[in-house]
Design brief:
EC number (chains A, B): 1.1.1.157
Structural class of chain A: alpha/beta
Low-confidence stretches of chain A: none
Keywords (chains A, B): Oxidoreductase
Oligomer: homodimer
InterPro entries (chains A, B): 3-OHacyl-CoA_DH, 3-OHacyl-CoA_DH_NAD-bd, 3HC_DH_C, 6-PGluconate_DH-like_C_sf, 6PGD_dom2, NAD(P)-bd_dom_sf
CATH class of the largest domain in chain A: Alpha Beta
Protein name (chains A, B): 3-hydroxybutyryl-CoA dehydrogenase
CATH architecture of the largest domain in chain A: 3-Layer(aba) Sandwich
CATH superfamily of the largest domain in chain A: NAD(P)-binding Rossmann-like Domain
Largest sheet of chain A: 8 strands, mixed
Strand order of the largest sheet of chain A: 3-2-1-4-5-6-7-8
Strand content of chain A: 5-15%
Mean pLDDT of chain A: 96
Shape of chain A: globular
Number of helices of chain A: 12
GO biological process, one term (chains A, B): fatty acid metabolic process
């Protein structure tokens, strides 16, 4: 099958970025959301990304204009999916809400449509039964589309194996590097490694082995990396970091979560609030 | 106190690199070893590094020649330490051997000499009693001197606090980035983070969540990093990786150690043998 029409569910940060890249890659894109205000924010985000891509000479003005011409917004879900060859769902990370959205899509989407979820933390098997087409449903998870260009293809046990090469090809056409997560795994591939590494840094800090700066230096200088673990946590957001960490069972994670909580309670959420472990 | 004369114990890879950088930084360096063959290997290594530094325009030919003029080898330990302001010990990673070496230094080194160990895995407190001067003894741990320029300063409980700024300054003069490990910690700062991250990658592999290549891609593309975890393991050496991993108590580490063992048994040790997870 050939993918031409893409339906994005949810006009948030990721939905907008995926939608814009799809349009840049030549697909016809419809972005659906329940709130008109989301579209204004989405257009602002896309406009900012477009400026960056033009400045970096990744795309010309004409290419960007053509992409914007292929992208439209709608509050009507039936219109959004009417022609869709594939759906990429980026609605709020809430299990009940996502189940409800997929139950609705099961009713209104054409038979041809491939269903994919961009969920960060849920497993596709928790949604599959609601899609009405579990064999044609798969997690297809983007990182940030324009800088970290990995897309995780993560089937659930019922996903049709024939879907994998189709998504692999689609991912490449979206300028991503597709990787296959052969069985369901919370956090796909990258988060498992990232969380272990950040947790080890947190353990060093809460055990007062070294300062934030020295722990970061140790990582950055050894790996010639632009950021150390605490700068990465600031960029992720300390509220998000706390949310993940406080659910982990071990004593070191609990202690690190307690430390993160003091930052969050003080309004220090990282880059987005102007201060976290560092000031911005 | 001013450091002018440096004594290196052990003419292996790290001893040679530390000694050569010290000579490049203007110090007078004596490298001691028990085997004359070590000196020939050491000179070959240093000659190779010198070529690289000259090619990269880090040092001129004259600077390199002057450095080589400040560096000498000796099989006589009394001569090696006679003028030493500081000792950097890089002998084989064997507790009893290191204890024996420090007991000997306690007898023959001048009173002024600062004692440091470059141990990777041992704690300085396991050697302190043998030095005869525990307050003037500290771990001072290099990574590879020329690419990963972190030096860990890790005191044991009896180390005199006044030693820290002296080592910090000495580290900077050796073109390193000094970091303070405030209390003894196995693996200093970096290894704790590295092992967690590599362990998480190993867990993904042994649980058959993804291929070696896809796990590496996920890390590299997300972080724009030159190497993923399995390429890093190949560069560390799979024998060393097995040695560390098989001592860890958890089931995932045990499973990963068993996998590493199959590579080691097949002679696939990573970069140094021409094949590990990848071919070189």
């Amino acid at each position: 099958m050939e993918i031409k029409h893409v339906c994005i569910l949810g006009a948030g940060t990721l939905g907008s970025r995926i939608g814009f890249q799809a349009a840049l890659s030549g697909f016809w894109v419809k972005i659906y959301d329940i709130k008109e205000e989301s579209f204004i924010l989405s257009q602002k985000m896309i406009s900012k990304i477009a400026k960056g891509l033009f400045a970096a000479e990744t795309y010309s003005k004409d290419e960007i204009a053509a992409a914007l011409n292929r992208l439209s917004y709608t509050l009507n879900d039936e219109e959004a999916v009417a022609e869709a060859d594939i759906i990429s769902e980026s609605v709020t990370e809430d299990l009940a809400l996502k189940q409800q959205v997929w139950a609705r899509m099961a009713q209104i989407a054409p038979e041809k449509t491939i269903f994919t979820t961009n969920t960060s933390y849920l497993l596709p098997s928790s949604l599959a039964a609601f899609t009405g087409r579990p064999t044609r449903f798969c997690a297809f998870h983007f990182h940030d589309v324009f800088y970290s260009k990995i897309v995780d293809i993560m089937p659930h046990p019922e996903t049709d194996a024939e879907l994998i090469p189709i998504l692999d090809d689609f991912g490449k056409r979206l300028k991503q590097v597709p990787v296959l997560v052969k069985k369901e795994n919370h956090g796909y591939l990258f988060n498992a490694m990232l969380l272990s590494f950040l947790g080890a840094a947190g353990k060093l800090l809460v055990n007062e082995v070294a300062t934030i700066e020295d722990i970061d230096k140790s990582w950055m200088v050894n790996f010639h990396a632009p950021m150390g673990p605490f700068a990465i946590l600031d960029s992720i957001g300390l509220d998000t970091a706390w949310h993940v960490t406080h659910q982990l069972p071990d004593a070191n994670s609990k202690a690190f979560a307690a430390l993160l909580k003091t930052y969050v309670d003080a309004g220090k959420l990282g880059e987005k609030s102007g201060e976290g472990f560092y000031r911005y």
